[in-house]
Protein: N-acetyltransferase domain-containing protein
Organism: Actinoplanes auranticolor
Amino acid sequence: MTMMSSPENLGGRTGASGVTSRDTAADTAAAQARTAAAAAGVEVRALSDFGDLDQAVRLFARIWGRDANPPMNLELLRAFGKAGNYVSGAFADDRLVGACAGFFHAPSEDALHSHIAGVSPEMTGRAVGFALKLHQRAWAMDRGVDRIAWTYDPLVARNAYFNVVKLAARPVEYMPNFYGLMLDPVNGDGDSDRLLVRWSLRDPAVARACERPGEVRADPALAAGAVVALGTAADGSPEPGRLGGTTSLVAVPRDITGLRAAAPALAGRWRRAVRDTMTDLMARGATVVGFDRTRGYVLRRNS
């Protein structure tokens, strides 16, 4: 059965006079969220009762392999929702297959921080994560919030592609060992470096990305004339290149999760190499403008 998302009361804002004004961008975002949910075959909705919240806690624990110490607990999700923050789930035939939770920044920052999002492994390739993020975007815009921020591991190529290409979010800060030691099957036992990304919800590039629920290819023009700042050697190890280019490429492993299990020392070398290269490039004024699945991050420095 195919179901559609139902973002609550999206597209209209009630002012002090009690009159609801239309926000066409928010209306469009709500329509895009419904389209994405239909394409994924899920219903995306807010989670509030204990049964749904408990399902979300169990789902997060299963995804991260942390049954004894889930990355989120029931009490915190309940408090998030009660305080007006974002807590939602994606359902396929009444079964929770994805969940996402976030909290608001300081009032002056006009932003939501998306703290955690996960999709059941058996739903891989169904674009459930895309549907969740578009629901989150529509929900935030309906509340007058124009930015969402989150973090992700810069070594995870599939997440880099999803965030930078499919969603058109932009990494703005490299944060070494942001969470400290995490000790789970997803993160391994090394440093928890993260890239902080910002999603400008009304940016035309973001709006265009949200119209494309299927496969999206990176723009090859972004990498035209680029120099390799970090490449991959024949033995699969990181190979330093040149840092002085206007446009630079920074490679990452194809499957860092598998590499951590099979060759943890090599995974550690990749962590240090990507950290050193990206922090150096960003210190020189470069910003991430794209991600290529075979060549890695595309960074460009303004002249």
The chain has a mean pLDDT of 90.
